[in-house]
Amino acid sequence: MASSFAKMMSSRGLFMASIGAGAVASGYLLSDGAAISAEQRRKLYPPSADFPDLRKHNNCMSSALTPAIYAKLRDKITPNNWTLDQCIQTGVDNPGHPFIKTVGMVAGDEESYEVFAEIFDPVIKDRHNGYDPKTMKHPTDLDASKIHSAVFDEQYVLSSRVRTGRSIRGLSLPPACSRSERREVERVTVQALAGLKGDLSGRYYSLTEMSDVEQQRLIDDHFLFDKPVSPLLTCAFMARDWPDARGIWHNNEKTFLIWVNEEDHTRVISMEKGGNMKRVFERFCRGLKQVEHLIQERGWEFMWNERLGYVLTCPSNLGTGLRAGVHVRLPKLSKDPRFGKILDNLRLQKRGTGGVDTAAVGDTFDISNNDRLGKSEVELVQLVVDGVNYLIECEKKLEKGQDIKIPAPIQHFKK
Amino acid sequence: MPFGNTHNQLKMNYSAEQEFPDLSKHNNHMAKVLTPDMYASLRDKQTPSGFTVDDVIQTGVDNPGHPFIMTVGCVAGDEETYEVFKDLLDPIIEDRHGGYKPTDKHKTDLNPDNLQGGDDLDPNYVLSSRVRTGRSIRGFCLPPHCSRGERRGIESMSVEALGVLDGDLNGKYYALKDMTDDEQQQLIDDHFLFDKPVSPLLLASGMARDWPDGRGIWHNDNKTFLVWVNEEDHLRVISMQKGGNMKEVFNRFCTGLTKIEELFKEKGHEFMWNEHLGYVLTCPSNLGTGLRGGVHVKLPNVSKHEKFGEILKRLRLQKRGTGGVDTAAVGGVFDISNADRLGFSEVELVQMVVDGVKLLVEMEKRLESGQSIDDLMPAQK
């Protein structure tokens, strides 16, 4: 992966050449205060001089980015003036963990996925288990009536939750947006949410105006999101101008929650205590459709296309952007050496109950779908429902001293 | 970000009012100075390399500041930033640098022979002496804005120049990304190694991008002259040694800097400098000399005196803990250095440190023997 520039650097005699036409540069540099324009600067430094050093890196971007791709894309810009360097900055700054493979790039706008398709497509393929945006189509299905067997035994399932994200077409995404665009996202979203009625009727709490009392209550409800501290996010410029135009909306019953301008324009969460995933998903679909309708009345729409489904900031959330999960007690199964394999074959992942990057407490796990893209919302939720039912069955069998089976692996893409 | 104006033209589709940052909870120099009208007049401008007013102020918007400490809240992306955005930066400079006006001229004096004394600070009290400054290479963007190619160019030019130094300035360069574990440990033990910035003041301005690419540390074999490459500025230059011989430290500082400057000129490059602002650096607080000259000195008695703060103020000095800025003093040992950077020459600032520390040590000795220091109180410099 070492670039040609790195090779030049090691040769002392090529010192002048390595600055990029150094002799030419001197002519500019010593003339009377003549500043070099952005255009001229671009020509002084060939793409090879700017190619990042990715030798210690292990993320999807670093696996896919070659000097040739970089050279082709470096000087391109999206209609919002977003560049490749801005997309990959987070992946350059965060080499990754030897065992966890992060994505390493973000989109600044909807067009990023087109203009920089040559790097986004292989990254998407890597992250989404072979989904090929060039040839495949992503199905969207928000018809909750299709879900069956989705009310779990509450001896085991403590809570159920479904989340996704939505971006407002025509406005730049969190890494790239200006303050006015971000404020516009807030305005459009809050105006739409004010139109929700019945069990979805609720209230918006802006982060800049929140009182201490409101803040404490939102923390106690586990609703409040904090300024990002993860360098994955801060290096992607997502924390700029915090907390301007950020906020939380939730319905009075505290079962439908929207985050505004955190990692995406909006994050939408439906949740409740207990095991009624059917009701959680039904509310999720209903709420999403109503919000979509309300923004469309005012001439806005969500970013969506056939190739990538719902378009979000991080490529890992493309497609459905959906994570459906439960907090479930599995004291015996979790100690069984086959637990990991069972989850893998069911296409499920486990997390601690604090969310991603936390450890499980006691015997309670957060179990959710692995996949986001290539299967519809209904398919993914049914997959989680079937999987959790299977896990509970295993747990009950182990309780009775019976043996359990590892299920056959679920096929991911239909051919 | 390099080579572009990132979104600037599109922001013009929204009004200045819609774009103006919310500074209601802010307390930094930028927030004090920036008005909606000023923002409106500056927002469609950019420097030739594409740095915009939003780029200048981002760190100040993201870091409202501390109620008691006044940060600057602005950075420059290139030399032209100070021109194109002078309506914003001139008042900030005036406020930060003791009333320095846009028409004032700054004097540069790096002739160590002009320093009086400084070789006789009592080593029983003065444990170490140090002088640091920064330099930027003209024609290159500064750390918040430079591309990887530019940053590597700065590194290779600096390493080439430093490689020519000989005599007691003979030394070696350690690139951060190629360092072995042993080298790293040695540099940590010597207190030479700088870390990836964690301060949100720096992170929000884009200075930590691509870390550790293009960053490194050079020092001479004697470990008395040290250069940081591509940390907060293109170059930070430090001369230091144990004991109280500030004259020797300053001598080496001036000699080394002058030599480095010559070497750059031979290759057709020069440092960013002008008559009004002196040496141009990334943060407006470091303009002029960019010089902080100081000592670690034992002042357990003086530091407890009720007039300690007033004495320092009159001497134009500031105190810090021995861990550097933002640390507390340990065991009565303080880092005492010049408070000013701009409007005084290098010689003048180091003279203030030398004279001031001499006086403080005298006061310390008086208080040790139970005598008063009232007759030693200095006038305001």
Automatic annotation (TrEMBL), chain B:
- Please give the superkingdom of this protein's source: Eukaryota
- Presence of the UniProt keyword Transferase in the record: yes
Set out the biological process GO terms recorded for this chain's protein.
phosphocreatine biosynthetic process
What residues does the Phosphagen kinase C-terminal domain cover? 125-367
Q: Which InterPro entries match?
A: ATP-guanido_PTrfase, ATP-guanido_PTrfase_AS, ATP-guanido_PTrfase_cat, ATP-guanido_PTrfase_N, ATP-guanido_PTrfase_N_sf, Gln_synth/guanido_kin_cat_dom
Tell me yes or no: is Kinase among this UniProt entry's keywords: yes
Q: Which UniProt keywords apply?
A: ATP-binding, Kinase, Nucleotide-binding, Transferase
Q: Where is the Phosphagen kinase N-terminal domain?
A: 11-98
Catalytic activity, EC: 2.7.3.2
- In this chain, ATP is annotated as bound at 128-132, 191, 236, 292-296, 320-325
Q: Where is this region: Disordered?
A: 97-122
Q: Which GO terms describe its cellular component?
A: extracellular space
Single GO molecular function: ATP binding
Catalysed reaction, written as an equation: creatine + ATP = N-phosphocreatine + ADP + H(+)
PANTHER family xrefs? ARGININE OR CREATINE KINASE, CREATINE KINASE B-TYPE
What family is reported? Answer: Belongs to the ATP:guanido phosphotransferase family.
Q: What is this protein called?
A: creatine kinase
Annotated source species: Phoxinus phoxinus
